[in-house]
Amino acid sequence: MSANIILQTKNLKKYYGKGGSQVHALDGVNLEIEAGKFVSIIGTSGSGKSTLLNMLGGLDTPTSGTVTIGNTELSGLKEEQLTTFRRRRIGFIFQNYNLIPTLNVWENIVFPIAMDGQKPDKRFIEEIVGLLGLEQKLHSLPNALSGGQQQRVAIARALASKPDIILADEPTGNLDSKTSDNVVHLLQMTSQRFQQTIIMITHNPEIAQLTDQIIRIEDGRIVS
């Protein structure tokens, strides 16, 4: 893998079921993503984009083929090693935010780092908080925030541990169009500011146009 490639898949396949009813969710995906790029994966419902994201994040195991992040091939890790790798090297942003309702904004942001027994880089996190406009909300609980604000907290949490890659699964799916644009612009800005590799799934071509690279998937195969 060349020096500037952060993520690579080789002949990645995921099949469900057997015989005539077998579904080829992923059917031989070969992918290389450069470090620091903001990439969107686009496709219709059922095209395999969510399955691909789950494979890239080590949340599911392929039927065959490999996923390599940095110098680590995910299939070579035991379950416990994979859990630690995910926590330290991959940031996740989900459509439904996945914030902990009893923790305030700051506590939500640093929670994965604390779980890992590490000390958060306070100055770095304060920079993220400032960039995302959350300074006035640090003591608020998630239920006191708008959808857009909750998604910003999720972005801050994903960035806080300085992961190799961030995987965003339809991060604008629950937001209105104006807030969606704001969130994608924030992702764009954080990618540039921190040279952060971000891979985002979306079904929205207009949102995909704001990224550095668009990968189109249909029927479990990359078509462009």
What keyword list fits this structure?
Rossmann fold, alpha/beta, 4-stranded antiparallel beta sheet, 6-stranded mixed beta sheet, 224 residues, 7 helices
What report would you give on this structure?
- Helix 4 runs antiparallel to helix 5.
- This protein has about 220 residues and is α/β, with parallel strands linked by helices.
- A six-stranded mixed beta sheet has the order 6-7-8-3-9-10, sandwiched between helices.
- The protein has a single domain, classed as P-loop containing nucleotide triphosphate hydrolases (Rossmann fold, 3-Layer(aba) Sandwich).
Largest sheet: 6 strands, mixed
Average of pLDDT: 93
Strand order of the largest sheet: 6-7-8-3-9-10
Question: Between the first and last Cα atoms, what is the distance in angstroms?
Answer: 21 Å
Structural class: alpha/beta
Tell me the CATH topology. Answer: Rossmann fold
Could you say what the CATH architecture is? Answer: 3-Layer(aba) Sandwich
Supply the number of structural domains: 1
CATH class wording: Alpha Beta
Total DSSP helices: 7
Please mark out the parts with pLDDT under 50 across 5 or more consecutive residues, or reply none. none
The number of strands is 10
By CATH's scheme, which homologous superfamily applies?
P-loop containing nucleotide triphosphate hydrolases
Helix-strand topology string = EEEHEEHEHHHEHEHEE
User: Over the alpha carbons, how many angstroms does the gyration radius reach?
Assistant: 17 Å
Strand content: 25-35%
What share of residues is helical?
25-40%
Question: Tell me, what's the shape?
Answer: globular
